Each structure stands twice: as structure tokens, then as C-alpha cells.
């Protein structure tokens, strides 16, 4: 499922290799480094893919201080949904994407500046 709204574009891919390819495609269409994010269910996997793809991870700047602190006490699923919502997606979209991440897929998000 792809989603396009006023805040961001998202694409679910099967693995890290496809995530890297998707990030490259987004860059070739004009998205800047600071506008492209990757997210996987496992934080270590997110770190590795973001480093390889030269993409960002969703952090305090995107989430805000309150949600970032709250994530310390949330389950990983709740944390992932909060991160996705902070990027401009609805709760329903976040739930869908989080389920895809549970299956081992990777989410690539591009924010519009």
C-alpha cells in the first residue's frame, strides 16, 4: 500500500535492498536527505538500512519531545505507530504500516518540504 497525503508519501518494501533502491529513486526525483526516512520493526535493522541508504530515522525533530519521551515507555508496536503518525499519517494508516513491519517489511517515507 502506498499513501500520498499533504504530509508524506510512504512505500512498503520487502527488504533492505528494496528500501535502498526506493531511497535512491526518491532522491532522483528531488527529495533531499532530510526528507527521506526508513523504518523497520527492529531498531538495529532500521539503523543498518538508514546507514546503507543514507536516509534518516524518525527522531525527536519529527516526533516532538513529548512523544519521543513517551516512546521510552511504549511497546515497540505503539512506538512505531506513534512515529508513523508523527510523519502525518492517520492512526488507521499507522496501524496498517505497523502490521507490515511486523511481517519483516520496511517502510520508506518521504516528507514534502
Automatic annotation (TrEMBL):
InterPro entries for this protein: GSP17M-like_dom
Ranges where the General stress protein 17M-like domain occurs: 10-104
Name of the protein in question: General stress protein
One Pfam family hit: YflT
Amino acid at each position: 500500500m502506498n499513501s500520498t497525503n499533504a504530509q508524506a508519501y510512504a512505500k512498503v518494501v520487502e527488504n533492505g535492498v528494496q528500501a535502498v533502491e526506493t531511497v535512491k529513486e526518491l532522491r532522483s526525483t528531488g527529495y533531499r536527505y532530510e526528507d527521506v526516512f526508513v523504518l523497520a520493526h527492529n531498531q538495529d535493522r532500521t539503523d543498518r538500512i538508514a546507514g546503507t541508504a543514507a536516509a534518516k530515522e524518525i527522531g525527536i525533530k519529527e516526533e516532538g519531545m513529548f512523544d519521543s519521551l513517551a516512546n521510552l515507555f511504549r511497546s515497540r508496536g505503539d512506538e512505531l505507530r506513534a512515529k508513523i503518525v508523527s510523519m502525518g499519517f492517520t492512526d488507521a494508516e499507522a496501524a496498517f504500516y505497523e502490521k507490515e513491519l511486523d511481517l519483516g517489511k520496511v517502510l520508506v517515507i518521504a516528507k514534502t518540504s
